[in-house]
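Hi R.,

Here's the input for the 1-O-phosphono-alpha-D-glucopyranose complex you asked about:
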Amino acid sequence: MNISTIQTQPFEGQKPGTSGLRKKVTVFQQPHYLANFVASLFAVIKPAEGFAGKTLVIGGDGRFYNDTAIQLVIKMALAQGFSKILIGQNGILSTPAVSNIIREYQAFGGVILSASHNAGGPDGDFGIKFNIANGGPAPEKITDAIYAHSQTISSYDIVDCSDADLSTLGVTTVGNAVIEIIDSVADYVVLMQKLFDFNAIRALFQSGFTMRFDAMHAVTGPYAHKIFEDILGAPKGTVVNGTPLTDFGGHHPDPNLVHAHELYALMMSDAAPDFGAASDGDGDRNLVIGRGMPVAPSDALAVLTANAHHAPAYAAGLFGVARSMPTSCAVDRVAQALGIECFETPTGWKFFGNLLDANRITLCGEESAGASSNHVREKDGLWAILLWLNILAKTRVSVKALLESHWATYGQNYYTRHDFEEIETDKANAVMTHIKTQLPNLAGQTFGGLTVQSADDFSYHDPIDGSVSHHQGLRVLFTDEANENARIVYRLSGTGTVGATIRMYIERYEGDARKHGQDTQNALAALIQLAYRLANIETLTGRGAADVVT
Ligand code: G1P
Ligand code: ZN
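And here is the predicted structure with 1-O-phosphono-alpha-D-glucopyranose in place:
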């Protein structure tokens, strides 16, 4: 193998965000841009003994630039001396599948090429992130070190060899290393069969239960065809948009009510099947809609926690649960009833890893359509959908009935997120500073019927490794006359690629069953107004309304 050393210079702003480095494709296409990041990654993770004997997993969501990026990562990994490189066929692996393969094959780690739910294609977004040996996203100390290295880089090494054939399953030898192209779906399917009662779900479909799964032309198509149609016996046509496309058919592969509007419209119509679901670009997010009943992700986490025992993998109970701080507190009440611990972590899946590894939690989730368990170290869209199906197969109730009985038991957390996108960075910072300066004076103040209990800038103390992460979101906690809680949380997104995105999370608990099931925006109207007012958003940004409301 002939290794070349290429001279390069640092790029500004190669700082990994909430989940890796995410930028416009055109940014990644600059000569050396991706190579600099990959070289910095390898420099940071290289163990004293080197990479000989170690395996690297590579996979992506199939978006534009996937192939080019994968060939580059292969050649740079070979130059670093990795002994084995495992790649999904045609470069396709969902994010949870990568996590599983790292664990299953005891790999050193994995490189995931994806920008998750962001649009793809030549004008869209691209991204890269690294997952460590436990299968989970690299922790902050690694991503910070990668960034630091990328700011001083002057050269990188790469092997001169022809491109790997990603389309043919099997093993090829390059120098002392082997490249193995593996089936993208097989290992993941085996894992799901271990966790869930496939016979019960098959019987559910046999009984006439109907479903639509929208793969959004993203990575989950091949997984979903195999699992739902081939194995579980749902009729062909249950999975729609099941062929991964490099530009996702021109759509955002984001499973929310806006971007999955066709599914939403169907589920709210007379022709609705029993169950609707979708997943995102890289397969880690999920959307679930019952007939006439969308399910908010925060509610989903609570319902799944309360009913997980219906699935074989969780029948013996849960160690504990965790949610990201801005995720609604609905799951906290379930944890309390089950007598298990509930942790509140910063936004981003990497913060769940230590708790999962230490068996402190079994399930975890975020408000942003992500949930998962200790079976991998990523959120997992199809896993969540299969857990719903397993629960419905065992209880034989509708999604609507399940949700309503959940609220009757635990109360309802009305919850919404308002996003202000593509704000100029200095304006977004001005908003955050404006809120921050008020925080020390808010406690005790009353707004409408709500009294501020506390207001702070959230810091997370990791109970396992003792690390502390500061500045993870500004939160204002209220109580009302009935001693019920409400919250407003503000934070800046770490995944946007243009300007800054301000996220406002607004939540109010409603214990009175007669007040359940209202329209969310109406039920929260006063609190939403207050959230805008405290942020002085209109004056400071010129925006009177959010761009995306979920
Ligand atoms: C967003 C979500 C967060 C999720 C991340 C990656 O990050 O809010 O929950 O983990 O995408 O999917 P944000 O843009 O808010 O930093
Ligand atoms: Zn994703």
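One thing worth noting: DSSP finds 18 helices and 27 strands in the chain.

Cheers,
M.
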